[in-house]
Design goal:
- Helices cover 0% and strands 57% of the residues.
- The chain has strands at residues 2-7, 10-13, 18-26, 31-39, 46-52, 58-60, 68-74, 79-85, 94-102, 110-111, 115-120.
- It is globular.
Length: 121
């Protein structure tokens, strides 16, 4: 089992920046991919970006391409992913969830508790 803990959410004005962090602990050797989902009020949860653990291949939703950057790191016991969010827009307001996909799984199946990002005009 993998435990995911996000940090770094908050409030910012449009045009500003925030950086989210996620630490994965536990059976991290089972993780092949991590990502950031977000869920805005009254909307479905959507994948914003992801990164493969082996070759660091990244994937971005059209809505965040060019503004958000996902990256990863690790130490002896944890995996880390980060989301640098620049040029934030009011429509980026959402709860952001760190997610992990186990090797062999076809979908993300591990979730953090979420962190709120609020962008005001």
């Amino acid at each position: 089992q993998v435990r995911l803990v996000e940090s770094g959410g908050g409030s910012v004005q449009a045009g500003g920046s925030l950086k989210l962090s996620c630490a994965a602990s536990g059976n991290t050797y089972t993780v092949c991919e991590m990502g950031w989902y977000r869920q805005a009020p009254w909307k479905e949860r959507e994948l914003g970006s992801s990164i493969r653990r082996d070759d660091a291949t990244t994937n971005y939703a059209d809505s965040v391409t060019g503004r958000f950057t996902i990256s990863q790191d690790k130490d002896d016991s944890r995996l880390y992913i980060y989301l640098q969010m620049n040029s934030l827009k009011t429509e980026d307001t959402a709860v952001y969830y760190c997610a992990a996909r186990r090797c062999g799984a076809t979908a993300f199946d591990g979730w953090g508790q979420g962190t709120q990002v609020t962008v005001s005009s």
